[in-house]
Amino acid sequence: MTRPPTEETKAADRQTGTATEASRHRIWSRLNPLPRLRTWNRLNPLLRLLILTQLAFNIGFYAVLPFLAEHLGTAIGMAGWMVGLVLGLRTFSQQGLFVVGGALADRYGVRPVVLAGCVLRIAGFVWLGYADRTWTVLGAVLLIGFAAALFSPAVESEVARQAVVWEEAGGGPRTNVLALFTVAGQAGAFVGPFLGALLLGVDFRVACLAGAGVFVLVLAGHLWLLPQHIPGRQRVAVKGGARVLVRNRRFLALCCAYGAYLLAYNQLYLILPDEVERAAGSQAPLAWLFALSSLLVVTAQLPVTRWAGDRLDLRRSMAAGLLLIAAGFAVVAAARPAAWTGNAGLLPAAGFVVLLTLGQMLVLPAARAWVPDLAEDGRLGLYMGALSSVSGLIVLIGSAGTGSLLDVGLPPAVPWLVLAAIPVASIALLPRRPRPVTGQGPAAGQ
């Protein structure tokens, strides 16, 4: 007698079917000469809007941030440790409060949270342009960070949720959508520094006002295009989710490893400008190094994501990325005692940027793709926010420490060696036996 299928059997059949679909998609990706364009054309209008949102966010943001440390040190006259603290506070007020923005997005929906964040970002940039004292700079920087803590987790969680839906509909691995989201962000990071460098020829205030103007356009676009209610997104109570989250050890381990990556990435704005100033006598080459990083992501992110998806699970992808990031710091540490200057002196900095960017290409999509498999139903915004909040706390502590390393007169290679050790050590924190990205995560049915 044939027994009726059990729930376990049905679930196994569903997972087998999903895996088969993913296998077919990988074969098609190898044969398809225009995967990026085809992926974009198959996305729904909401995903396209959110990806373009990331592009615009980063244009406005990177028109100002890469030049903030120099402005604080020269125009405002802050000490190195204070500059590091201000940058750390900016990151913490953003990343550290993502959990608040994510919870609010779960409760009230994406639209109101994104719109509120845009309004606060506009106010923050205008304030920063006119700030000329330590306390006013701190206020403006905190407001800028909190604005991102509202809109970024709302956008990122919805992109992750839509990527899961896209995967389950047979569109392909969710990492492809998340990689495209990363590409859009880096395209903005590519354009932003050039815009900022051009405007800095007039004044830092002009750059800040231009950044505010970008967010005025973003605000207007979202008032017009962003839906009031997104189908399939259920609103949940703010209370209750945090208790389960803090007991989720695998998720917290992922947060700590991601924090090590973010601390390393934050050195683009703290330790790299100092190295470029030493080698070149000015920070003019900094814009070109940022452009190099962004151009690498724009051109290579999707091929790297497809390559990693065919060969590595999520844990191995993140581990490989963290090792590449560590290698970037080690390159500068090895070359620093020689004290090269001029074009030769910039080569280790360029190597650092390249290796850091390659590591980012592996870490970022894998971390974002992993979160839906670890999150509770209806709490994806909270979990995406918490991923950034824990890492923001790590950056706050680590940035002040890095600033101190630069001030106390240690041998020039030591700060770079210390920063190289952090991502290597964080690999041990990654959760074991990650669920396959093609599986049915607990957040998949949101």
Automatic annotation (TrEMBL):
Stretches for region Disordered: 1-21
Membrane topology, as annotated: Multi-pass membrane protein
Domain Major facilitator superfamily (MFS) profile: from-to ranges: 46-438
PROSITE patterns: MFS
Predominant location: membrane
Top-level taxonomic group: Bacteria
InterPro entries registered for this protein in UniProt: MFS (IPR011701), MFS_dom (IPR020846), MFS_trans_sf (IPR036259), MFS_Transporters (IPR050171)
The name this protein goes by in its record: MFS transporter
Source organism (scientific name): Streptomyces ureilyticus
